[in-house]
Amino acid sequence: MNNLPFDKPGRFWKGNLHCHSNLTDGALSPADVCRTYAENGYDFISLTDHFLAVYDYPLVDTRPYRTERFTTILGAELHHGQTEHGVMWHILANGLPLDFAPPAETETVADFVERAIDAGAFVSIAHPQWYTLTVADALSLGDRVHAIEVYNTTCDETDTGAGSYMLDLL
Question: Pick the residue with more confidence: 144 or 48?
């Protein structure tokens, strides 16, 4: 790779915008997730547990785990509607308020994403290859998406971690 920025002046921040706790399908409590990342030199994380009825729509208040060297961004992995392949969408919303409401039955995926943005969230499509998101699906959200997760370690364990086929959309 050419033209990497790492030898340029400025500050680089180490963070994670997509992780889960044992409130959904993660292994550690929210406190332990935050502590583990902080102890491993991360500057920030967004704990994005699955925002689903089966988990009682968790939006974890991670503010108590902030320190002078480590901060948290409130967030969730939103799920609603179905893709072209009939599976639920996986949308990361970093920067949600704690009172963000679950999706209404009549709300479209695009409207749900728009509501997250209106609430202040930075919105990304999570691990698109893992759930075989099509380019048409991604494009259906128009300019509502700020980013696409192009690599996910957990999904990589099932050989579906790279979403590089979406890079041209960026």
Answer: 48
Q: Where are the beta strands (DSSP E) in the chain?
A: 15-19, 44-47, 50-51, 71-72, 75-78, 91-94, 122-125, 147-148
Give the number of other CB atoms < 10 A from CB of residue 77: 24
DSSP 3-state assignment of 16? strand
Q: Which residues pair with 47 in a beta bridge?
A: 19
Q: Do residues 107 and 80 touch, judged by C-beta distance below 8 A?
A: yes
Mean pLDDT of the chain: 89
Domains and CATH numbers, the chain: 15-169 (3.20.20.140)
* Residue pair 30/60 in contact by the 8 Å Cβ criterion: yes
In this prediction the pTM is 0.87
